[in-house]
Amino acid sequence: MNEIRRTAVLGLGALGILFGIPMQEHSQVRVIADEERIRRYQAQPGRCNGKPYAFDYVLPDQGEPVDLILVATKATALEQALPQLENFVGPDTVILSLLNGITSEEKIEARYPGHTLWSVAIGMDATRMGRDLEYKNMGMIQFGEKDGSLTPRLERVKEYFDRCGIESQVCTDILYKQWHKLMVNVGLNQTSAAFGLTYGGLCQKGNAYDTMLRAMEETIALANAKGIPLPPDNHTRWLDANLPTFKEDGRPSMGQDILAGRPTEVEEFSGIVRRLGREYGIPTPANDFFYETIRKMEEKN
After folding, report:
1. DSSP per-residue string spanning 193-255
2. Same domain, yes or no, for 207 and 251?
3. For the whole model, what pTM was predicted?
4. What is the pLDDT of residues 198-211, one digit of tens each?
5. Which of 172, 205, 223 finishes a domain?
């Protein structure tokens, strides 16, 4: 089994920076970007937890096949960005998406059949301000085959992440893990955006907290309707165990997007919950509220 040595990152937001830094210490990493972005990245070098970082940038048409590609764009930019991978995908290339939501893998697999692993990135509390990134918890990457099988390429990717010091887990229930992450995002991200709350504010009981719980409960109901066995107390157990560990003054990515005037991933959160709710006949009033509120905030921005 050949070791993963040549890698690429598409998208240099919080997760691209967070995982790209340890990756480049243990492999050849190329960050895929167009000319405008490369000029901007080089003109505005960034810092991660106060330390400068730099990457090797490459234009899409200058690419060569690599062993592993991490896709770390925003969900709103994925379809426009996917053609940029064309020259980097060879016969044995593995593509792993770090995007939020439950739709990115299907889109990647449709464009590059047979190359995609299903995955989720969990537990990080990274805050990005321009090119600078700060975090307390790096989190981990969970990944697996869609059908739950154990394959040699999973072992290969796991060995690579271990070598880079990136915490990871091979999962035979990756669809369960994705729906669990969707539940978390539907709650934390949307509540932070709609109510303007930090992680510390999300811990406080009240109307925002109650709305967050209801949105997460709607996601659990939909997962169960699709045969994904999220427990009924999945949300409260996760919140009690994890929310107090995040930086109190940090914000989930959607809260950061609203403050920065960027488009959000609301379509991947309450947007997909609302659509599936209509399909399965499950009411989604909390997610309706979040969708309408955040869309109005985007229009104002």
Report:
1. HHHT--HHHHTS-SHHHHHHHHHHHHHHHHHHHTT----TTHHHHHHHHHGGGS-TT---HHH
2. yes
3. 0.86
4. 999 999 999 999 99
5. 172
